[in-house]
What we know:
This protein is an alpha/beta fold. 36% of the residues lie in helices and 22% in strands.
Amino acid sequence: MNASVERVEMPLAEPFEIARGVQTDAENVVVELEYDGTTGVGAAAPSSHYGETAATVEAVLPDLLDVLPEDPHALDAAHAEMDRAVGRNPAAKAAVDVALHDLLGKLHDLPLYRYLGFDASATPVSSFTVGLAETDEMRRKAREAVAAGHEVLKVKLGTDRDREIVGAVREAAPDARLRVDANEAWTPKQAVSMCEFLDGRVEFVEQPVSAESPETLRYVYERSPVPIAVDESLVDPTDVPQVADRADIATVKLMKCGGVRPAIETFHAARAHGLETMLGCMIETNAAIAAAVHLAPLVDYADLDGSLLLADGADPFEGPPVPSLDLSGVARGTGATRR
């Protein structure tokens, strides 16, 4: 297989803030794999929280691409060889994995969900994220999101104004389904108190406390009247047993676990442990998100709005529509196409 790598810097429509910090642009690394005249595309959306940057992705990609089997169907061997060649670096591996899956769908003249055997009619609607800002600004963002057709909002929290924020968003979007994400910002007692406040107001609370303390997560889970989702506490399939007795929902991201194939393994592991599942993303080009959309039939919840946070025209790729996650327009592969 022939390969090419391209680093893309994409400005965001507005600064995007969570409890850990603020982001104004996104650097992704696009990978294209060509085999027998057909090209598959994928991308890495690295997160420094997991030890990756665009520079580290570019640094390890030559080693990952060098060990790929010549046959693109050999996905198990591809992952085994990539894992032997390079340590964790899941976003870099995800870029290669997504490109392989896009390539396979195109080689078989099938959309990826059909190649994988999934039911496209079973996709949930994606949420849209309201990032942290001043309360009036978050009220505005929620109002505009609903006006744009978003029925499900995920609200970032982790401030001393969290209750005020929830009230403002609910005022602006009285009919929207709400979820909240604290990104590890609360103490155990704060988390329990907030969960009690949020009971009846939100569908679930995502990552209320630090991923570094599993027993703290258990403390909150056992006292919370609302379901608890884990994100930072669950990176790949091996983490599922450690969170299964202290959470209700497993959040899976291709960029955390290493791509489509490891994500499917994580979903199955979560189901086997009695957890519901949510499919999430980073701030990503459609070259990456498009692949995740094809996995949406496997999950209970979806949070695939990463490309929607980019400035108009910043993404060099188009993909299946969000929030509907409608796959009917995808003819081959993931549906990611250059603008």
